[in-house]
Amino acid sequence: MKKFVLLLLFGFYGFVYAQNNQLGTLTVEKIMRDPKWIGTSPSAPYWSRDGKTLFFNWNPQGRTEDSIYYITPANLVPVKTSFNMRKQILPASSYTYNLERTRYTYAKNGDIFLGDAKTGTEKQITATVETESGPEFILNSSKIIFRRNQDVFAWDIALGITTQLTNFKKGIAPVREPKKDTLNPQEKWLARDQLEYFDVLKSRKNKKDSSEAATKAFTKEKELRSIYYGDRILSLVSVSPTGRFTTYRLTTPAKGARNTIVPSYVTESGFTQDINTRTKVGAPEGSSDFYVFDAIADTVLLVKTDSISGIKDLPDFAKDYPTYDSLKKKPETRKVTIIGPTWNAIGTSAVVEVLSADNKDRWIMLLDGATAKLSLLDRQRDEAWIGGPGIRSFNNNDNKWIDNETYWYQSEGSGYSHLYTVNVRTGEKKQLTSGNYEVQNAQLSLDKKYFYITTNAVHPGEKHFYKLPVIGGQLQQITTLTGANDVTLSPDEKYLAILYSYSTKPWELYLQQNKAGAKMKQVTYQAQSPEFKSYPWRDPEVIMFKASDGANVYARLYRPTQPNPLKPAVIFVHGAGYLQNAHKWWSSYFREYMFHNLLVEQGYTVLDIDYRGSAGYGRDWRTGIYRFMGGKDLTDQVDGAKYLVDNLGVDPKRIGIYGGSYGGFITLMGMFTRPGVFAAGAALRSVTDWAHYNDGYTSNILNEPYTDSIAYKKSSPLYYAEGLQGNLLMCHGMLDVNVHFQDIVRLTQRLIELKKDNWELAVYPMEDHGFVEPSSWTDEYKRILKLFDNTLKQK
Predict the structure, then answer these.
(1) By mean pLDDT, which of 282-291, 397-406, 438-447 is the weakest?
(2) Please, which pLDDT band fits residue 394 given cuts at 50, 70 and 90?
(3) 483/467 Cα distance (integer angstroms)
(4) pLDDT, mean of residues 738-761
(5) What does 634-689 look like in DSSP terms, one character per residue?
(6) What local confidence, expressed as pLDDT, does residue 498 receive?
(7) Distance in angstroms (rounded) separating the CA atoms of residues 325 and 318
(8) d(Cα 467, Cα 359) in Å, to the nearest integer?
(9) What is the mean pLDDT of the chain?
(10) At 491, is the secondary structure helix, strand, or coil?
(11) pLDDT value, residue 532
(12) Which of 105, 9, 3 is nearest to 537 (CA)?
């Protein structure tokens, strides 16, 4: 059975399966042609504009790549699209409607089109070799604006005339010097005298002056202010519904930021090639400014942020350093990034989101186009970092206005991401959802009377789809199957396309009417192959245990039917940090899921913990690792080990731990700082020193190395390597552009200098952070299994 499950686990290159008590074998060559031997799941569903057809990616025949299939609510049998059909289809999200939803516009193949929503008839607006994009209706739907290169143009629907609205130019505005009168007094007198005595000369001059004046007047009518932006980067160009205001962002790139290099040793040329990758945390960053161009006043105004409430607030961690007093006396205005704006339907109000560069603040602010002044609607301050579902996913095209005065948003102000509204005229705020659960997705209905939201209100490990009145009230649950229900709502809001999965069942596509209690109709049936179905995959229990600090910790538990007499156990640590794996749907860690089935076959107990920092449990859980990675996230693993010992009879001396990426980091911290808890550990693609990781992820949690060195020293395994006692396996891809191979090389040198001999390093010369070669996955997991068998099962 061990051989059976091991080969099944590594079915990417070969496996054996049981059927009618006889073993049948698939060859290596066949499996290499069919890497999706588990089955094939649909993905990326999207609706046609009229909501009559649902398209999705699928590969039921096991080809090298997915194809596009479609169904209709009347016919649920998937049909593969033809080449001509694929050329024509666009997702419903590609279309923009006028307020009355009688007309729509869209971009295709670099041109702009206008359509009639009732008849479906369409006309092409542009036909140029240049690319036009981003069409929208403005001025009571009388015009369509679109982008061409870096500028915005408006096409008048009634007249068919295209007008240029912006004139952005790279470089510095030329300095215009005043005209100089080069005639001396004698020359001026002669010129006047000539015109006084020669009528023909005077007549010709008058005609010339009139012609020049007319030309000048005509030219002036076509004049458009040139907006020069130097060598900065232009982005987020947006026009108000009235056409009066154009907002844009100019970004100054970072200077002195040094990129890292990842060498590739096994190449076609035979020469080592360098891969240019990212910077490291704390590298110099760019800055940006936000502007408003007022077409009526013909002014360009900078949106100033130095008077925003709290803009000079110091972070709490600064108190731990001797420079705090001097910083407090002369606090600096913090750098921010402005995102938006989102305008109400009539163009009288605009809302922007302002994010501080230190990740501590998010301001939702009203922008006055005429003055470029900001006024506060909501401030969310987090001494750890701003985050959570729907918090930092601002999109200019989101429908964020319930009416012309009411704006909606998400905030973790209550401890969980919930829905709020704010009246931009009165400033009155209202919380629409509440409770110990997260609103993970939200969209406004077409009639703006309801929200459609996805939450984990039933259980942290389930996802369901709900309907909620915009004024708040009772959630109406629409999906019912236990697991995850990822919903794509049809444009007419009549149907739900649902990607559904359960712990033991990979994703399948379902269709359901948008009604509570309506039946989910299954569309696809290929997510599990006959070979995959032939094995009784275990349904892990989602349990909860108490951490040493009293917190409730969720985990997946795999119990062996016949425990090994030595009572060994393995704890798996998921990667990414902010990710959820103790849930009731098909895990993205499907290889690990199968490996855990193999371990259980061999008598191991397996625990998979959603430790501090994991997704799905609110703000306090998300930020529980602030300034100390390897703190509470590690004690949750230690408390999990205690749970196994106290409740399941596991031998405390026979517990192993493993994981990749963040899971590899926790494995190292466990092996280095908790002697005696873990007898063996497999650290895969591990971060060994956070000062060498990227800025976007690390600076949120640990700030910057030169501003918060305490946090980095506490959190980096490199500083604790002398504590290694158990048996350690390290595996790392040499082409890893995420967690660089340099990380594990530096730790290896440290272990050598410390004269440690109970460790081993396996390198994979042609692998990135996520392995792609079946042979690499197989080699890695064979080594992990060997480590646990040799360490945890030895008498």
Answers:
(1) 397-406
(2) low
(3) 19
(4) 97
(5) HHHHHHHHHHHHHHH---TTSEEEEEETHHHHHHHHHHHHSTTT-SEEEEES--S-
(6) 98
(7) 9
(8) 32
(9) 91
(10) coil
(11) 86
(12) 9
* pLDDT tens profile 415-449: 999 999 999 999 999 999 999 999 999 999 999 99
The DSSP string of 344-392 is -TTSS-EEEEEEETTSSEEEEEEEETTTTEEEEEEEEE-SS---STTTS
Q: Kind and range of the H or E element at 7?
A: helix 2-9
How many other C-beta atoms can be found within 10 angstroms of the C-beta atom of residue 167? 15
* DSSP assignment string, 520-589: PEE----SS-HHHHTS-----EEEEEE-TTS-EEEEEEE--SS--TT--EEEEE-SSSS---SSSS--S-
Of the pLDDT bands very low, low, confident and very high (cuts 50, 70, 90), residue 204 is confident
Question: Between vectors from CA 54 to CA 48 and to CA 57, what angle results, nearest 5°?
Answer: 110
Q: Which of 116, 117, 119, 53 is nearest to 88 (CA)?
A: 53
Residues 287 and 272: their CA atoms lie apart, in Å, by 36
- Alpha-carbon span 214 to 14, nearest angstrom: 83
DSSP-assigned letter for residue 691: G
pLDDT value, residue 250: 97
Q: How do beta strands 727-733 and 759-764 pair?
A: parallel
What the block records as the tokens of 43 is 């993905």
33 pLDDT above the threshold of 50: no
In this prediction the pTM is 0.90
Say which DSSP state 334 is in: P
The three-state secondary structure class of 136 is strand
Q: How far apart are CA 26 and CA 9, in angstroms?
A: 14
Between CA 3 and CA 547 the distance in angstroms is: 37
Chain-centre distance for alpha carbon 276:
23
Share of the chain above pLDDT 70, in %: 92
Q: CA angle at residue 283 from 763 to 744, to 5 degrees?
A: 15
Residue 458 neighbours by CB distance under 10 Å: 15
Q: How many CA atoms lie within 13 A of 554 on its CB side?
A: 20
Q: Please give the DSSP secondary-structure letter assigned to residue 173.
A: P
Element (H, E) at 77: strand 75-80
SS3 assignment, position 206:
helix
DSSP structure class, residue 463: B
Identify the pLDDT of residue 1: 39
Distance CA 90, CA 108 (A): 8
Residue whose entry in the numeric block shows the structure tokens 């008048």:
156
Task: Reply yes or no on whether the pLDDT at 207 is more than 90.
Answer: no
Q: How far is Cα 502 from Cα 480, in angstroms, rounded to an integer?
A: 12
Look at the chain and count its residues.
795
pLDDT at residue 15, as a whole number: 35
Identity of the residue numbered 600: V
Q: Which single residue is written with the structure tokens 């190395």?
A: 705
pLDDT, residue 55, reads 98
Q: Which residues contact 337 (CB under 8 A, 6 or more apart)?
A: 288, 354, 355, 357
Of the candidate ranges 17-26, 34-43, 142-151, 588-597, the one whose mean pLDDT is the lowest = 17-26
- Pairing outcome for strands 655-660 and 15-19: unpaired
Residues in contact with 652: Cβ distance below 8 Å, sequence separation at least 6, in sequence order: 641, 645, 677
The whole-angstrom separation of Cα 639 and Cα 504 is: 27
Both structure tokens of 561: 């039917």
Helix (H) or strand (E) holding 785: helix 774-792
pLDDT of 291 reads 98
Residue 794: is its pLDDT beyond 60? yes
Q: Are the beta carbons of 558 and 538 closer than 8 angstroms? A: yes
Over residues 167-188, the pLDDT tens digits come to 999 999 887 655 556 677 887 7
